[in-house]
Amino acid sequence: MVNIYKDTEALLTAVADLFVDAAREAIAARGQFNVALSGGSSPKQLYEKLASPAYNWKVDWSRAYFFFGDERYVPADDPESNALMVQHALFGPLNISPENIFAVNTTLAPQQAAQEYMQRILQHFKRQEIRFDLMLLGLGNDAHTASLFPGTTVLQEQAVDVKAVLLPDQKTYRLTLTAPLINLSHQIAFLVYGAAKAEAVRHVLEGERDTSRYPAQLIRPDQGKVDWFLDETAAALLPVKYKA
What we know:
Elements: E1 2-5, H1 8-30, E2 33-37, H2 41-50, E3 64-68, E4 70-72, H3 82-94, H4 110-124, E5 134-137, E6 162-167, E7 172-177, H5 179-182, E8 187-192, H6 198-206, E9 225-231
Parallel strand pairs: 1-9, 2-3, 2-5, 5-8, 8-9
Antiparallel strand pairs: 4-7, 6-7
Helix pairs in contact: 1-2, 2-3
């Protein structure tokens, strides 16, 4: 489902409400809430909202377990680290126990870090099927999501896994959940706003299927639900049918 909001504040409120509902439902059904977070500037405002007095009492945070859909291969104290950003915006203000936070160990070599992260995920899910209750995703101007970038070999990956991805133009690695792992989630939410994202949104939702150029098209779960949360500027190039 595509949801379009007049401004960023309305969009963030809607996603925060979705987060709370998903957490409550998962805890009621399974005793815990397993969520994979997205990095970048867009979700930072969401995390700050969840940590605010308006929302911080709505979730039993002791039963929430936090993972990352992707991570930059940088030291834990690097300003570019997704985990560090979320620590400042969400984990710190809510006093989340370190035992509930599954960050990528970037002190290991990239491939080792990916393997180790997958092992920790498997252990948490007790080696049963890995189905995150909520997967938060963003969208890059180039239509990438998580660290599934155009033209990278990870786009052909069929395994439920975590992979290290080399970005030659940036001469750096990223760690990412594969599309098959993301697609196992009970619920997936794309949080996208800003005019710079409009072209990518149009290609992913309405363009020809070309996952090598538009990797976010890979996110098509067989059983789970996908919701797009867009502001009007990000949705500007979509057909009228989405805006009715």
